[in-house]
């Protein structure tokens, strides 16, 4: 048998190649099972970059669904709470050019806000509790509700369902703890002629 | 002569220390109102334990420490609490923070207090507690609660106690003058520290060689105490904790580690004096030595200043010329910050108030582009690459900033000092550090929000599933009930169904009269159509083609046929009924 194969080089080559094919195929198949990655890692990475306000301004019911949609080719500029910095981060992750924020989905807010319930006016309807995506509102039917400010993502979703309009979005107070050094003035602002009034002001004070 | 090591980088700015050393440490009259901020240290702000209107004595506790990293506050003089509210404090932001205002009664009456004369017989724990209760926080600048540094729980035993008397920043002479006048007490304080730490084998006082008088004052007191005074060449910034440790021991602390991890404790020399006063005299930390200097002041000297003294009070007693002053700085010219108001109080970390003239510290020159000269990298005492950090800071590239060890920057300002383009490098770094810390905080928050959102989703899904399961169970129960009733009514049902069907058929049946009328109507309709077709054919006869005539003729024939059929059906119907009627008659 072996001799007859050895005498026919084409057959020998064929057997060798097929044998190798089966061997590596089995190896790849095993590796694919053994080192299987659960879920889509790119979705996780995009989700990490999104701000997790769960506000739905992008048109998806939460940040994760939007991340999934981006992974399958959707535009990356639909997230107003994340703003340009999030767009830039996703763009560099996906290695695509960073577009401007799509105005259709809203504008980037200057200030972070949290919901605040005017508790005297609350009628205890529980509608805001149902609307809150992160369970940051406490209360029960016919009892006053209140927002846990630390858990609130400022998504706005509770404002609209309130039948008595007692929810305000208040800017987060910036205290000493939140303060950090501002960036130095840009060189353009420091041209001598631009600077003159500014520095006089400083002297007067 | 003890061996010292040389740190990388560093600069030699004009020292300007002699101005404030011509006079001994002075005392200021007690200000009318003192303002004690509740947060003068690193950690949680203290919690006020007095009420507005309450009378307090000098040294009485007015605020409790909250949590483990915090220190209490004490009344700097006797008087009445006149306010507990937010006031502008000495902070680079110029913001307000909670403060206790004391209106002085001018009597300066001490509360009853007593020290421990022979501390050697007290346990380290008891001494540490005294230090904590005295509200002592690092007086070199950072304000870290001293008791924590001295507490047990170190990963390894402390073998080196380093006392920082470097005072490397220009203008500041608070430590220098304190050593000259209070060397004995300072050494006693070091003795207390040594006792608390279990008598470490090395006790080093690190001091720059530009303070020969201070070194001379210390020498006689350390003779047989095992404490060595180590002087080394003057260079800014030798007084940074990591820099001083390297200079004295040659050991480099890894990034992010504390001296305690290397078996060392590093403490400011002003703090050792406060510790002596607290332990031996029983006095809490209510005053400190602060340098008042700068050309805009007629008198340059050090004052024993009560904590909470407004800066303006110091200025009025130092012949301050406001018009000549370019800015008010708390701290030194390298690491200090400009004050937005002179009403802010002196705190436990205030070592200097600098009121320079315009020629001393002019306004900042406009920043020019970076020319990559590399002078900042040569000056950096932490061996960082300031020019790279500057690029990445401008580009807000946080990953690269961290990769270039931005957080090892001690913000000494040596790079900004040497920069030929006047770039405010340190402010860029401070800004970037703030941004990175903020981003980290936000990341933690957003992760938390994600977790909560996912839990919320899961709960909603579970609720939906439960509802669906309930609905299915109900449907099944209904079907079962139906089947059981059907089985109960049983066999009689077939006959019922037939009867019901017959009843329905009977209801549908029409009477013979109605049938006849229907036939008659159809005959009338057919007659009408025949007539119309005949008329059309007559009209068309004149001018239509043969083909169309044929169509019309066919239509007429059809109509005639239908008429005949209808007449035949009516005839049949009448015939049938006659027979039926006759049968019924019979």
Describe this structure in words.
The complex is a heterodimer of chains A (205) and B (586). Chain A contains seven helices and four strands. Chain A is mainly α and 205 residues long. Chain A has three domains: 29 residues; 65 residues, 3-methyladenine DNA Glycosylase II, Chain A, domain 3, CATH 1.10.15.40; 64 residues, Alpha-Beta Plaits (2-Layer Sandwich), CATH 3.30.70. In chain A, the strands form two sheets. In chain A, strands 1-4 form a two-stranded antiparallel sheet. In chain A, helix 3 packs across helix 4. The radius of gyration of chain A is 30 Å and the shape is elongated. In chain A, 22% of the residues are buried. Among the domains of chain B are: 161 residues, NADH-ubiquinone oxidoreductase 51kDa subunit (Rossmann fold), CATH 3.40.50.11540; 106 residues, no CATH class; 73 residues, Helix Hairpins (Orthogonal Bundle). Chain B is 43% helix and 13% strand. In chain B, helix 3 packs across helix 6, helix 9 packs across helix 12 and helix 14 packs antiparallel against helix 15. The mean pLDDT of chain B is 88. Chains A and B meet through helix 7 of A and helix 12 of B.
In short:
Chain A has 205 residues and is mostly helical.
List the helices and strands and how they pair.
The complex is a heterodimer of chains A (about 200) and B (about 575).
Chain A: H1 2-7, H2 9-34, H3 41-49, H4 63-71, H5 83-94, E1 113-117, H6 127-131, E2 137-138, E3 146-147, E4 167-171, H7 192-204
Antiparallel strand pairs in A: 1-4, 2-3
Helix pairs in contact in A: 3-4
Chain B: E1 26-27, E2 33-37, E3 47-48, E4 55-56, E5 61-64, E6 73-74, E7 79-88, E8 96-104, H1 124-133, H2 146-150, E9 160-164, H3 174-196, E10 202-208, H4 212-222, E11 227-232, H5 241-249, E12 264-268, H6 269-280, E13 287-293, E14 301-306, H7 311-316, E15 329-330, E16 337-338, E17 352-354, H8 375-379, H9 386-394, H10 398-403, H11 414-418, H12 425-489, H13 493-508, H14 512-543, H15 546-585
Parallel strand pairs in B: 1-14, 9-10, 9-12, 10-11, 13-17
Antiparallel strand pairs in B: 2-8, 3-5, 4-7, 5-6, 7-8, 13-14, 15-16, 15-17
Helix pairs in contact in B: 3-4, 3-6, 9-12, 14-15
């Amino acid at each position: 048998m072996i001799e007859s194969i050895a005498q026919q080089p084409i057959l020998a080559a064929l057997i060798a190649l097929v044998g190798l094919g089966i061997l590596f195929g089995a190896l790849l198949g095993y590796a694919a099972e053994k080192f299987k990655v659960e879920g889509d890692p790119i979705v996780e990475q995009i989700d990490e970059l999104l701000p997790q306000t769960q506000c739905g301004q992008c048109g998806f019911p939460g940040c994760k669904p939007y991340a999934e949609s981006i992974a399958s080719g959707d535009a990356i500029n639909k997230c107003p709470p994340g703003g340009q910095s999030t767009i830039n981060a996703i763009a560099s992750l996906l290695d695509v050019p960073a577009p401007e924020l799509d105005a259709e989905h809203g504008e980037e807010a200057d200030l972070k806000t949290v919901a605040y319930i005017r508790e005297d006016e609350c009628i205890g309807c529980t509608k805001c509790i149902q609307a809150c995506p992160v369970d940051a509102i406490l209360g029960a039917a016919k009892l006053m509700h209140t927002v846990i400010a630390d858990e609130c993502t400022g998504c706005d979703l509770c404002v609209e369902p309130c039948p008595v309009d007692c929810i305000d979005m208040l800017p987060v107070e910036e205290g000493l703890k939140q303060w950090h050094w501002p960036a130095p003035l840009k060189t353009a602002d420091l041209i001598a002629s631009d600077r003159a009034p500014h520095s006089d002001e400083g002297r007067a004070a | 002569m003890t061996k010292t090591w040389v740190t990388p980088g560093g600069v030699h700015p004009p020292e300007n220390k002699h101005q404030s050393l011509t006079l001994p440490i002075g005392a200021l009259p007690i200000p009318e109102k003192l303002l004690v901020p509740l947060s003068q240290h690193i950690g949680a702000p203290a919690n006020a334990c007095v009420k507005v209107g309450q009378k307090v004595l000098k040294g009485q506790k007015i605020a409790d420490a909250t949590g483990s990293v915090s220190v209490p506050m004490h009344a700097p003089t006797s008087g009445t609490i006149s306010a507990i509210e937010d006031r502008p404090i000495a902070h680079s932001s110029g913001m307000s923070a909670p403060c206790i205002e004391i209106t002085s009664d001018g009597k300066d009456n001490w509360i009853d207090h007593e020290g421990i004369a022979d501390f050697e017989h007290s346990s380290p724990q008891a001494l540490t507690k005294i230090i904590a209760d005295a509200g002592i926080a690092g007086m070199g600048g950072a304000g870290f609660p001293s008791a924590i540094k001295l507490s047990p729980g170190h990963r390894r035993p402390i073998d080196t106690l380093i006392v920082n008397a470097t005072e490397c920043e220009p203008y500041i002479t608070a430590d220098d003058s304190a050593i000259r006048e209070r060397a004995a007490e300072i050494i006693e304080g070091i003795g207390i520290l040594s006792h608390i730490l279990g008598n470490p084998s090395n006790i080093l006082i690190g001091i720059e060689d530009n303070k020969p008088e201070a070194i001379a004052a210390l020498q006689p007191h350390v003779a047989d105490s095992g404490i060595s005074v180590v002087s080394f060449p003057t260079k800014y910034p030798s007084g940074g904790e990591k820099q001083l440790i390297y200079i004295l021991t040659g050991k480099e602390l890894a990034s992010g580690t504390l001296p305690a991890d290397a078996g060392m404790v590093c403490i400011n020399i002003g703090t050792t004096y406060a510790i002596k006063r607290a332990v031996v005299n029983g006095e809490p930390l209510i005053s400190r030595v602060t340098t008042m200097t700068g050309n805009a002041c007629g008198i340059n000297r050090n004052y024993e200043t009560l904590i909470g003294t407004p800066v303006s009070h110091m200025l009025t007693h130092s012949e301050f010329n406001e018009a000549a002053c370019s800015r008010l700085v708390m701290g030194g010219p390298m690491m200090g910050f400009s004050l937005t108001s002179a009403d802010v109080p002196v705190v436990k970390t205030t070592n200097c108030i600098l009121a320079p003239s315009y020629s001393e510290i002019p306004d900042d020159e406009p920043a020019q582009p970076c020319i990559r000269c590399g002078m900042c990298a040569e000056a950096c005492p932490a061996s960082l690459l300031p020019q790279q950090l500057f690029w990445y800071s401008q580009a807000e590239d946080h990953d690269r900033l961290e990769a270039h060890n931005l957080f090892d920057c001690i913000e000494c300002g040596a790079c900004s000092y040497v920069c030929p383009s006047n770039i405010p490098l340190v402010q860029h770094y401070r800004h970037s550090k703030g941004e990175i810390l903020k981003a980290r905080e936000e990341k933690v928050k957003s992760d938390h929000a994600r977790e909560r959102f996912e839990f919320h989703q899961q709960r909603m899904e579970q609720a939906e599933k439960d509802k669906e399961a309930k609905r299915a169970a109900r449907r099944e129960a209904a079907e079962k009930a139906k089947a059981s009733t059907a089985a109960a009514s049983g066999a009689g049902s077939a006959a019922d169904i037939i009867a019901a069907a017959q009843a329905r058929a009977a209801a549908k049946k029409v009477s013979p009269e109605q049938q006849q009328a229907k036939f008659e109507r159809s005959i009338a309709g057919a007659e009408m159509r025949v007539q119309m077709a005949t008329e059309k054919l007559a009209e068309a006869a004149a001018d239509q083609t043969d083909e169309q005539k044929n169509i019309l003729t066919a239509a007429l024939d059809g109509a005639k046929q239908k008429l005949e059929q209808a007449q035949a059906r009516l005839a049949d119907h009448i015939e049938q009924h006659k027979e039926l009627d006759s049968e019924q008659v019979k």
